[in-house]
Every structure is written in C-alpha cells, then in structure tokens.
TrEMBL record:
<dbReference type="GO" id="GO:0004029">
    <property type="term" value="F:aldehyde dehydrogenase (NAD+) activity"/>
</dbReference>
<protein>
    <submittedName>
        <fullName>NAD-dependent epimerase/dehydratase family protein</fullName>
    </submittedName>
</protein>
<feature type="domain" description="NAD-dependent epimerase/dehydratase">
    <location>
        <begin position="2"/>
        <end position="221"/>
    </location>
</feature>
<dbReference type="GO" id="GO:0005737">
    <property type="term" value="C:cytoplasm"/>
</dbReference>
<dbReference type="InterPro" id="IPR001509">
    <property type="entry name" value="Epimerase_deHydtase"/>
</dbReference>
<dbReference type="InterPro" id="IPR036291">
    <property type="entry name" value="NAD(P)-bd_dom_sf"/>
</dbReference>
<dbReference type="InterPro" id="IPR051783">
    <property type="entry name" value="NAD(P)-dependent_oxidoreduct"/>
</dbReference>
<dbReference type="Pfam" id="PF01370">
    <property type="entry name" value="Epimerase"/>
</dbReference>
C-alpha cells in the first residue's frame, strides 16, 4: 500500500492520478480542512486519510498499513509572512514522516525536494546531484527549508530507511495561475510588458509524477534524482506562451540594476500584504545567468524521456484558455 502526503496539492494530485492510472493501491493524505478540488473528478476512487504532517500522532495513524510513501506535502512561498509556517511544514513535517517510516518499518520513502536544495556555486553553469549546498544572503527561505528537509531524509537513510529524493525544477502545470510558477501564464495573459535576461529550468508536472512513482520500486536507494527537462530563456518562454494565447509578448527588457529595485519593492510589498512577490532577490541575482540542472541520471535509471517544452506549454495554455472561456460564458448567462 502506497501513501501520498500532500495529495490534495498540485503535484500531489498528479501523483494520485498516476497511481490510479497504474492501478496501484494507495491512500491519499491531507489535512482535514484542505481543498481537494483538484481531484474532484476522481473523488469516488480515492481513499482519504486526514493528517497534518506536523501532527505525529495523526500522521502515524494515517500511515498504518502502508509499505511505501511519497512525501509531497510542502509549502512553496517567498513571502516573509509565511516563512515560519513553511519552515515548520517543510522541515518538521519531513522529520515526522521519516521518524514514523522508521518506527513502522515502511520499505521505501520517496521524498519530493527541489533543485533549490542543491545550491549553486558562483559561475557554475551545469549542476548535477552531487552538488554541495552553498548558503548565502541571496538564498531563499524556501531553498533553505528544502535543504534542511533533505538532511532529515539523509538521516533516515543512515538509520535504516530506504529513501530516494526527487529534485524537480520549476514545475509547469495547469493550475491556479495566481499561485506559484503558474503565475507566469497569468502574467503573459495580462500582456505585461517586461521581461528579464536569464534562463529558467523547467519540468512537466506529469513527468515529476511519473519519476516519483517509477522510483518507488527501483533497487536503488540513498540517492537524489534531478527532474528537469531543460532550460529556456525567459524571453523565449514568454514568447512561446504568448503565441499559444495569441497575446502580445513582453518586449521591454529590465536591466539588472532596475530589476534589483523591483525585487526590493516587491519584497516590501510582500511583507506588508502577505502576498507572493512577483520578483524575488533570488530572481534578480540570477538574471543574466544561464545554467542547467543535469538530467542524465534519471534518464538512464528509468530510461526516461521528458515532455518537450512546446507540448507542456500547449497543454497548460489550452487549460487556461478553456477555463477563461468557460468563466466568460458563465458571466453572460
């Protein structure tokens, strides 16, 4: 029996759909008051167990009878207001998952981390799973939370738990475009004028789900696997999304000094309002840089091929256009 923590979240919902497609027995774990609308169409096929990963007692009960766990429960935030909650869930929650897996003799834990946990040396243009964490003033709290969560996974491995870590890059998925990486689609839909230098590493959410599920039963443990399809310039990415939407692409390039000012203003606005900043210090720092998270290891291990960027963007954009058209139709009726 497989358990998926954070099953109601964006990635979690695709993990659930992958398990359903493969007819794997599983339970979905989420908080009692969580929004489960992403899985509304398959609700009758899911067995839910309620637990907050910070609640050891409830979590231990939810993992009863489970042999394999995919730990996807986490918060992605760059707002200072949510930093404490994010650190608690991402680090303490992972610690609890590891401890309970050890106590209950669970055979395999697949942990969903992030490429943010790998760190990056100054001037480094290619990064693989062996990269060492480097903490500096520009590191986001999110990156720190994922790094310290990985330390809990490594501890579990040393104490006898079979673990594997998946490190996705920026996940492309049809979702609420007011949240996380999906905000880039809303930005282009609204025909905002600005873009920056630099590159983004990306991966289709369906690929991340396939990799995580694929690693559940592999005879390999104690290792990381980067899930990254490739990299693309912000300018090219924006142009591709705009073409799918039949919208005007951003055409005004922000230079680095101006980008730093915008990042500072956005950080201050985020602190006052609690909303996510559109541009972070980390984004500004990486502007003008080009680097790639290597995917050779996972491609060889699972004989895996990633979705091409054009297919992923077309899939996402079609979702947003259909949703927007449906909303307008409802407003007219």
């Amino acid at each position: 029996m497989i358990a998926v923590t954070g099953a109601n979240g964006l990635l979690g919902s695709f993990l659930v759909r992958r398990l359903l497609a493969q007819q794997e027995p599983f339970v979905a774990i989420a908080r009692k008051d969580s929004d489960r609308s992403l899985l509304a169409d398959v609700a009758d096929k899911i067995t839910w167990r309620e637990a907050d990963v910070r609640d050891e007692v409830a979590l231990a009960e939810a993992l009863q009878g489970v042999t394999h766990v995919i730990h996807a429960a986490a918060i992605v935030s760059f707002s200072p207001r949510f930093a404490r909650n994010m650190m608690d869930i991402n680090i303490e929650g992972t610690r609890n998952v590891v401890n309970i897996c050890l106590d209950q003799g669970i055979r395999r834990l697949v942990h969903i981390s992030s490429v943010a946990a790998l760190g990056r040396q100054k001037g480094q243009d290619r990064i693989d799973e062996s990269n060492k964490w480097v903490s500096d003033a520009a590191s986001s709290r999110y990156a720190e939370s994922k790094y310290y969560a990985e330390l809990e996974i490594f501890r579990g491995q040393e104490e006898g738990l079979s673990t594997v870590i998946v490190n996705p890059s920026v996940i492309l998925a049809p979702a609420d475009w007011h949240k996380s990486s999906a905000k880039v689609f809303k930005y282009i839909w609204d025909q905002k004028p600005f873009y920056t230098d630099g590159y983004i590493n990306y991966v289709d959410v369906r690929d991340v789900a396939a990799i995580a599920v694929g690693l559940l039963h592999q005879p390999i443990e104690g290792e990381r696997f980067i899930a990254n399809a490739g990299n693309i310039s912000f300018e090219n990415l924006f142009q591709k999304i705009a073409a799918n939407f039949n919208k005007k692409a951003p055409s005004v390039k922000l230079n680095k000094p101006l980008l730093n000012v915008v990042a500072w203003v956005e950080g201050f606005r985020s602190f006052l309002t609690g909303s996510e900043p559109l541009i972070t210090r980390e984004t500004a720092r990486k502007a003008g840089t080009k680097f790639l998270f290597e995917n050779d290891k996972i491609r060889k291990t699972l004989s895996f091929e990633f979705q091409p960027i054009d297919a992923s963007l077309q899939w996402c954009c079609q979702y947003y256009m259909t949703k927007t058209a449906g909303k307008k139709s409802g407003e007219r009726s």
